[in-house]
Automatic annotation (TrEMBL):
Domain of life: Eukaryota
GO biological process: jasmonic acid mediated signaling pathway; protein ubiquitination; ubiquitin-dependent protein catabolic process
Annotated ranges, domain SKP1 component dimerisation: 109-145
Role this protein plays: Involved in ubiquitination and subsequent proteasomal degradation of target proteins. Together with CUL1, RBX1 and a F-box protein, it forms a SCF E3 ubiquitin ligase complex. The functional specificity of this complex depends on the type of F-box protein. In the SCF complex, it serves as an adapter that links the F-box protein to CUL1.
PANTHER family: SKP1 (PTHR11165)
Keyword NADP attached: no
Gene: LOC109714658
Pathway given in the UniProt record: Protein modification; protein ubiquitination
Protein name (Swiss-Prot/TrEMBL): SKP1-like protein
Amino acid sequence: MESKVTRMIKIRSCDGAVLDVPEEVAVQSRLIRHAVEDFVTAETLNLAFEYCTKHADFAAAAAIPAADDEKKKAAETEIKDWTSSFVNALSMDVLYDLVHGSNYLAIEELMDLCCERVAGMIRRKSAEEVRATFDIMNDFPPNGED
C-alpha cells in the first residue's frame, strides 16, 4: 500500500487553540474549502495585509491624544498620499487580483479603493479606449453599439 503525503492545515479556534487538520478533512467545511482553494494568491494577501497594516498604524497614531491639529492633519495627508501611491503603483493584473481578493477577504476600504482606481481608468474614455485599456474584444455587430 502506497503512503500518501497529507497536507496539514492549521486552524486557530476562537479560544486560541491551534489545530493541525488534514486538508481533505478541513475542506469539508465550505468556508475553509474556499479559503484553501480560492484564488487569493500570496502576492494578493501580502498587498492586502500591507494595506491593512499601514492603515492600522495610522489609526493607532490618530488615537493618541494630540494637542496639535497640525500633526493630525499631517498624518491624514500622509495616509492619503501613501494610499494613493499604493493603489497607483499596481499593474492591471495585480489590481484585478486585489479587487477580487479584497472582496473575498471582506476588506471593504481596500476594495473601494481599487474600484475607484478602475473607475478612474474608465472615466471620460470612449468605448474603444476602454476596450483597449482592459483588453476587451468588441463583439457587437456593426451598428450594434448605439
